Amino acid sequence: MTKQNGLMLKVGLLSISITMGTQMAISPVLPDIMNSFPEKTTTQVETLTTVQSITGLIFVLLCPLVASFLGKKRTVVLGLLVAGISGIVPLLSGTLSAMGLDNILVFRVIWLSRLVFGGGMGLVCGLAVSMIGDFFEGDERATLLGIRTSMETLGQVATTALAGVLLAFGWQWPFAVYAIIFVLLALFMVGVPGDKPAARGQSSEKSSEPQSVPVSVLIVCALNFLFMICYVGINVRIPSIVTEGGFGTASQSSLVISALAICGLVCGLLFGKVFEALRGKTPALGAALLSGGCLLGGIATSLPVMFAGALMCGAAYPLFISYIMNLVTEISPKSSVMLCTSIAISSGFLASFFSPYILSWVGRVAGEAAAAPFVPYAVLTAGIAVLCFFLYGRRR
C-alpha cells in the first residue's frame, strides 16, 4: 500500500463517520415544522429527530447478515445511498403540497423518510468501527478510532450549523444538508477497496467459523450502555439546568453545548496520544471526567461552573467510547468482530432511546429540579471509572 493510497483509505473510512453525526442536524428546524403542521403535537414533531433510532438499531443488528451477502463495502454504499436519498426527501415537501397533497400526508412522507434514513444509517454505523479494524492494528487503529469519534462530532456541529443557516430560506431547506452524504460516499468509494487486505491474515476458513459473543464483550456493552445513559442525559438537560437555575439564557445554554461538542472533537483527535500514555487506564479517565462533569452539572449555580462541567463531559466521550470500540475489536473472536461491534454500537442506540425515560425516573426519585438526577449520575459514572480501572487498567 503506497502512502497516498494509505491516506485515501483513511479518508474514505473516516468519511462515513461524518455521516453518523448528521442524524440530529434538523433539530433547529423543529419549531418551524410545528408552525407548518399545527395539527401535529409537539411530541409528534419531535419524533422526527428520534424515530431514526428505531430503524437504526434494527439495521445495526442486521448489518452482519446484510454484509455477508453484499460484502462490507457494498453494504456501506447501500446504507449511504439510502440515507442520502431519504435524507433530502423532505426538501420536496413544498412540491408535494403544491401538488395538492394533504398536510397530514405530507407530514407522513417526512416521517417515513426519517424512518428510512435511520435504516441507512444503521448499515453505516454497523461497519464504521469494524472496517477500521479490518485495515489497521495496534496504536494506529486506536488513533483512527479516536479520530473517528471526532469526525462524528464534526459532522454534528457542521451540519447543525449549516441547517441553521439554510433555515432562513424556509424550513424545508435545512434537509439539503444531507446532500453532503453523496460527497462522502464518493470519498469512501474511491478510498476503500472492496475486500479486506491480505495482511490481516484472514483466511476463507474464518468465515465458516460459528459466530459468538464472549461474556467480556457483553460486559463492555453494559458499561457502554450505562456511560451513554449519563452522557446523553447531561446533553439533553443542559438547557433546562441553565435556564431553570436562573444563571443563563437559552442562547447561552447553546454555547455550553457547543463547548461540549468542540471539546469532544479536540479530545478525539488527541485520543491516540492519550492512549499511548495511559493504555488500559484510558476508559477509567473518561468515566471519571464524566463523573466530574455530571457532579458540576448537578450543583451548578453559575455559568462558568456549567461550562467547566460541559468541557469535562465533552472530553469524557471520545476517551471512553474510542477505547471501548478499540477494545471490542481486540477481544472479539476473529469470525465475530462485525457482530460484536454491531452489538456494542447497539448498546449506545439503546441508551440514547431509553435515556429520557431513565432521566425522568431518576428525577422522580432524586427531585424534580432539572439538575437533580446528575449527582446520582456522578456516583454511577464514578463506579464505572473504578470498575474500568480494575478490569482494564493493566492492559497494554
Please, could you describe this protein's structure?
The structure is a single chain. By secondary structure, this protein is an all-alpha fold. The protein has two domains: 3-194, MFS general substrate transporter like domains (Growth Hormone, Chain: A, Up-down Bundle), CATH 1.20.1250; 215-392, MFS general substrate transporter like domains (Growth Hormone, Chain: A). It is 76% helix and 0% strand. The chain contains 17 helices and no strands. Helix 1 runs antiparallel to helix 7 (103-128), helix 4 packs antiparallel against helix 16 (337-366) and helix 12 (250-269) packs parallel to helix 15. The radius of gyration is 21 Å and the shape is globular. Mean pLDDT is 88; it is low at 196-206.
- Uncertain runs with pLDDT below 50, 5 residues or more? 196-206
CATH architectural grouping of the largest domain: Up-down Bundle
The ordered H/E elements are HHHHHHHHHHHHHHHHH
Number of domains: 2
Round the mean pLDDT to the nearest integer and report it: 88
The span between the termini is 27 Å
Alpha-beta content class: mainly alpha
